[in-house]
Amino acid sequence: MNARKAAGQAAKAKFEATGDVDYIKGVDETDMNVGMPGDFVWVWYQPWADRGIWENTYAVMSDADLLDYESISAADQLEVPWLMIHGDNCFIPDAARRHMSAVPVETKTKTVWDETPHLAYYDQPDAIARATAEVLDWFGKA
């Protein structure tokens, strides 16, 4: 992660100095030096690129801020109702748990934790309908 962050910082400095953007592939099933490596994301994203709907590129400078981003301190200051829809088959479930644990106990929260795969929320009608129903119910009661 340190090498990726350093590359992002160098690419961001280059962009700020010259306006030039360094790109790498967005996804790859075997190359770990891409924006989102591994078979799991490759299987979902690559067909979009094959059809010309999505370009398989990632701005290296994105990692300069992405890998420094910290949100736990914001979670522990939440005073408004908060809903999280997540699960063990979604990306980074431990981070989701840390965020929910950081929210003050007096803040009204709800967590829907199920087995829905992360990418199902992108394009599978049943997962989208379940999540939408949870959101509608939450905002109706919040």
Number of helices: 7
| Radius of gyration of CA atoms, rounded to a whole number | 18 Å
Number of strands: 6
Query: How is the largest sheet built, in terms of strand order?
Result: 1-4
**N- to C-terminal separation?**
39 Å
Given the C-alpha coordinates, what overall shape results? globular
The largest β sheet comes out as: 2 strands, antiparallel
What share of residues are in beta strands?
Answer: 5-15%
Question: What is the domain tally?
Answer: 2
**Structural classification:** alpha/beta
Q: Share of helix among residues?
A: 40-55%
The ordered H/E elements are HEEEHEHHEHEHH
Low-confidence stretches: none
Mean pLDDT: 92
What can you tell me about this protein's structure?
With 142 residues, the protein is an alpha/beta fold. It folds into two domains: 2-66, no CATH class; 72-141, no CATH class. 49% of the residues lie in helices and 13% in strands. The chain contains seven helices and six strands. A two-stranded antiparallel ribbon has the order 1-4. Strands 2-3 form a two-stranded parallel sheet. The radius of gyration is 18 Å and the shape is globular. It starts with a helix and ends with a helix. The mean pLDDT is 92.
Topology:
Elements: H1 2-18, E1 23-24, E2 27-28, E3 36-37, H2 39-50, E4 58-59, H3 62-66, H4 72-75, E5 82-86, H5 93-102, E6 109-113, H6 120-123, H7 125-141
